[in-house]
C-alpha cells in the first residue's frame, strides 16, 4: 500500500529501536504518555512495546473520545433515542458503551429505538433529508479533528433548511485534558511519573502545535506531535528521549507531512463560528474539566439537541470497582484493575476503556495480555491455564 | 362423461420478467407447483430432484462401507443478495460444500430451503436459482431436495436460504478441531479478506469502489488433493468464514488446548483488500472468507502438503503461516511485520452483519 507501507517498515523500525536503546540512559527510566487512543492502538497492534528498552515505558492517556464520555451523557443519548419520532445516528463504537443499569444503545435498538450506525456526519444529513418526518439527531463526539466535519454538517443543514437535524454535542478539547492530567491530585503529589507527551497528529492538523506551549512553559514537559503509523510513534519516542537527555522541554513536530505550528485556520474559524467552550464538562476519569468541551453557540441553538429536547445531564456513578478513571489519568495500568479480564472483557465491558478498540484496556486485552503472563513467568510465578 | 369435451385450463407461464412472488406461491397450491416447475426444477435439475417426492432417495455411494457419513446445515442471509463474485445462490452451495469438505469428506448431496419475502422479483429468484444450479453442477454435488416458503412483506429481507449437506469421509481419515499438537504447521490456502471486502464494497451506505471480488468457491477439489498428499498426517481443516482467520485459529487453539504463533508477513493479503481494510478501520484477520481453508498438519509433511495445495488452482497462493505451540493460555500470537508481538484475538462485537 503506497504511502502506508513506508511507515510500517520493519527494517527501519529496528534501526530506530536500536537508536532508542543506544540513547536511553541506563541509570534512569523514561515515562511518556501517548495522549491519543490512536497511538495506543498503534503501539499495541504493532507490538511496539517489544521494540523499546526496559527503561522506556508508555502510559496510555485519555485521548479516546468514547472512553472519556461520562456515563451520564451515555444515558442522555439512550433516553434521547427512546423518544418517539427520534432517529439517533451514531458511530458504531458507541453502540456497546454501557450506560447506567447495564443499558446501551445496542440494547435500546434491540428494544425498538431507531438507532442507526453511520460512518460520517454526512450519512446523518442524508437520513434527515430523506425522512423529514423524523427528528434526526447526530451523536457528535470526538476531539478537535472531528469537530470541523460536525460544523460542516450543521452549515449544510442550515443552508438546505433542514429543520429536523440536530446534534448531541460531545466534542472535547485536547490541551484542556492534558492540563487536567497535570493538575490531577496524583500528579500534584508526584505519584505519576511523566517525562513527556506524544501528541496526536490529527488533532494538530487542525489546531497546530502552538496550543501545547503551556505544557512546556508551565509544567516543564516536552510534547512531540506524532503521526499514527508505527514508525511515527517510534520516531516520536526517540525525539522525546533526546529532549529528556538534553534537558530540553520543547513542543516538537514529528508529523511534518501535515502539521504546522498554526494549524488549519479555516477549520479553526469555522469551529469558532459555530461552537464555544463549555465552562465545565465532565470527563470520565478526569472529572470536571474547565473549558474542556464545546457546545453550539446561541446562533445555532436550533441545531442543538440538548436545547431542542431539554436534555439535562444527570451525573451517573461509574462502577466503583472499575479503575477506568485512574487508568485514564495514567495512575494505573489496565492489568491493575480487579475487573480486567475477569468481569470486564471486550464482550462484556464494564468500563469505557474496554469498549472502544482505542481504549487502553481493550488494546491491552486484545493485543497485549500475553505480556502479563510472560512477566509473571519471568517473576517465577507458577501459573495454570486461564479460566 | 367425455373428458374431451371439457374446456382445459390454459397453462399460463410465470411472468418472470416483471412478476413478483406472492403469498400464494408458498401456499402449497397450484401457484407453488408452478413456481417450483418454472424456476427451481429447471435450474437445479437432477434425477433425484426429478423424483418429485417429499424426500429424495439416493443409493449408498461406493466406499460407504467403512467410511463415515457427515452432515451439516447452514443458513444464508447475506446482504446484498448479489455481490461481486457471487450471490446468495452460489454462496449457499459453496458454503455448505465447504463445511462438509473440511472433514475431509467427499460431498454427496445438498438440500435447499427458500424463505422468500412477498413481493420479491421473480427475475431475481430465477437468477439466484440458476446460479445455485450452476454452482452445484460445477461442483458435481446436486441439490436433491428443497422447500419453498413465502412470508409477508417485511417479515424477511428478499430471500433467505437454508441448506443441508451430506458427505462421506473415507475410511481411515479423521480430522477434528481438537487434534492440533505442538510442533504442527499451520497452512493457509490463499489470500484473506476478499469476501468480506467484496460484500462491504457493495453495501449501499459505504459506496467505495474496488476491483475485489468474493473468493466464494467450493473447496472439495482442493481438499481431495490435500487428503491424497498428506493422508492421516492432516490433523484438521477449517474454512475461515465469519470472524476470519483470527476466529478460526482461536477455535483451533481452544479445541486443541494449544497456542498458535503466526507470522504476519507470511499471511497473503491482496493490496486492494489491505487498502480497503485500512480505510474502513478493519483488520484483514477478522474479515470473512468463503473460498479459503486453514489446515493443521504434522510438521514433517508440511512441505509436501503445501506443494500439493499450490498445484491446485484454489491453493495457488497457499502459505505456511505459523506453528502450533504449547501454551496453557491457548493464545494465538502474531509476530508483526513491524517486528513486535501481539495477540490475535477473537473479534469483539459485530464487525459486519449478514456477511453470508
From TrEMBL, chain A:
InterPro entries: Hyd_form_HypD (IPR002780), HypD_1 (IPR042243), HypD_2_sf (IPR042244). Keywords: Iron, Metal-binding. Pfam families: HypD. Signal peptide: none annotated. The keyword Metal-binding applies. It comes from the Bacteria. Transmembrane segments: none annotated. Coiled coil: none annotated. Belongs to the HypD family. This is Hydrogenase maturation factor.
Automatic annotation (TrEMBL), chain B:
CDD domains: HypE. It comes from Rhodoplanes tepidamans. Residues 181-333 form the PurM-like C-terminal domain. SUPFAM superfamilies: PurM C-terminal domain-like (SSF56042), PurM N-terminal domain-like (SSF55326). Residues 53-169 form the PurM-like N-terminal domain. Belongs to the HypE family. This is Hydrogenase expression/formation protein HypE. NCBIfam families: hypE.
